[in-house]
Specification:
Layout lengths: L31 H5 L3 H17 L4 H4 L1 E7 L12 E7 L1 H14 L18 H17 L9
Antiparallel strand pairs: 1-2
């Protein structure tokens, strides 16, 4: 392919320079460096792939594959106990780019309520904990019965 692709709807603008988690698991798995250093034509083809996925409502199985990696919770604990580990799913770089592509196109129409604290930009669960403590404190100081359910 010669020349530059002028009409491309996908850019790697949000991609960060990261290492390749899971690179040791399989040598054929592309990582962020592969995509950042790739030829311009790869971005065009990824753009076409992502647009076709959205248009057809179908995502190839290869984009849905993840690798589950166990992470130890307590290194001083019992290493043979299954409850001492938590799973972390490592997705492919292509699926992360597809997710970024979809979110960047639909985030403007997605809305949340003021009651959502987690998974929201500029908010944290600390705010929710503070609100819960303030509400409980209010009812306790007013000598009302305060029942909380978790």
């Amino acid at each position: 392919m010669q020349g530059k692709v002028k009409d491309r709807r996908f850019e790697h603008g949000g991609a960060k320079h990261v290492s390749c988690p899971g690179r040791h698991l399989t040598s054929l798995r592309p990582c962020a460096e592969h995509l950042l250093c790739a030829d311009e034509s790869l971005r065009f083809f990824l753009s076409e792939l992502f647009n076709m996925c959205i248009f057809n409502g179908y995502i190839p199985d290869s984009c849905l594959n993840t690798t589950i990696v166990p992470i130890c919770k307590n290194k001083n604990g019992n290493m043979s106990d299954n409850s001492n580990y938590r799973p972390v799913a490592v997705a492919t770089v292509v699926s992360k780019l597809l997710e970024h592509f979809i979110l960047s196109n639909i985030s403007a129409i997605l809305g949340t309520t003021d009651n959502q604290f987690g998974f929201k930009a500029g908010h944290s669960t600390d705010q929710c904990t503070f609100l819960l403590k303030q509400t409980a404190s209010y009812f306790v100081t007013m000598v009302h019965l305060c029942m909380l359910c978790f």
